[in-house]
Amino acid sequence: MFCLFINAAMKRYFVRFGVSLLLYAVSLVLSVLAFVHFRPTGVVAYILAVLPALFIVAQIAAFALYLSEEKDEFVRNLQIESMLWGIGATLSATTIWGFLQSFVHVHPLDLILVYPLYCALSGVSYAFVNMRYK
User: Fold this and answer.
1) Strand runs labelled E in the chain
2) Would you state the pLDDT for residue 1?
3) 1 domain-assigned
């Protein structure tokens, strides 16, 4: 039977992450619509382009706050280890793709995909790290 223990630090993390994810989605849609329909220029264009990324920074900050608030050292260690594997896999994949771009001229990697790649790889690595202790 699967049982998920959610403590106070996790609850605060889910709220912070959820709010930042919602604001990211709203700001992304608004930015895309603004660029498609109004074609902003100058400072407004820069603000609209950067706005969704600020909420990704908020997601990263929410996770950092969670790690600082998590009292269970074992749970915190699992999270940190999976993050490290995710970072390593992301750096490896993007470096390999960079060499392919330079020498084989494959399609350039859109940098906007690096954070979702990191999240996916961290999630996969969490599953593997967690399996060691089952």
Assistant:
1) none
2) 39
3) no
